[in-house]
């Protein structure tokens, strides 16, 4: 076995280990929020991939969910709900 074959073998094994390690890692949820008196903004990673922006109007109890559409390069309204419908009745 020459030096070139050995180097290629080591690089292949390293790439395989990194690929397996990357597929086994669990992605942690991250969210950042800004809260004011009337509105609250929260950014987070979307389940389908990409980013989502949640805008909640505290006074009316409505939440709008916006997603970034990379193919159209624009923000798209994904859904609009009542806050009570999202979290259920409080006890």
Structural class: alpha+beta
Number of strands: 5
Strand order, biggest sheet? 1-2-3-4-5
Principal-axes geometry comes out as elongated
**Strand content of the residues, in percent?**
35-45%
Please give the alpha-carbon distance between the first and last residues.
Answer: 71 Å
* Overall helicity: 25-40%
Radius of gyration: 22 Å
What is the count of structural domains? 1
Mean pLDDT: 82
Count of helical regions: 2
What's the story with the biggest beta sheet? 5 strands, antiparallel
Low-confidence stretches: none
Order of helices and strands, N to C? HEEEEEH
Report on the architecture of this protein.
The chain is an alpha+beta fold. The chain has one domain (3-87). It has helices spanning 3-24, 83-87; strands spanning 31-35, 39-45, 51-57, 62-69, 74-82. Strands 1-2-3-4-5 form a five-stranded antiparallel sheet. The longest helix has 22 residues, at 3-24. The radius of gyration is 22 Å and the shape is elongated. The N and C termini lie far apart (71 Å). The relative contact order is 0.10. The model has no long low-confidence stretch (mean pLDDT 82).
């Amino acid at each position: 076995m020459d030096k070139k074959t050995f180097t290629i073998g080591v690089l292949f094994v390293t790439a395989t280990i990194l690929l397996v390690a990357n597929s086994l890692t669990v992605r942690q949820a991250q969210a950042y929020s800004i809260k004011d008196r009337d509105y609250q903004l929260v950014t987070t990673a979307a389940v389908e991939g990409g980013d989502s922006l949640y805008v909640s109007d505290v006074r009316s109890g409505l939440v709008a969910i916006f997603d970034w559409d990379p193919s159209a390069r624009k923000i798209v309204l994904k859904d609009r709900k009542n806050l009570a419908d999202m979290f259920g009745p409080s006890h």
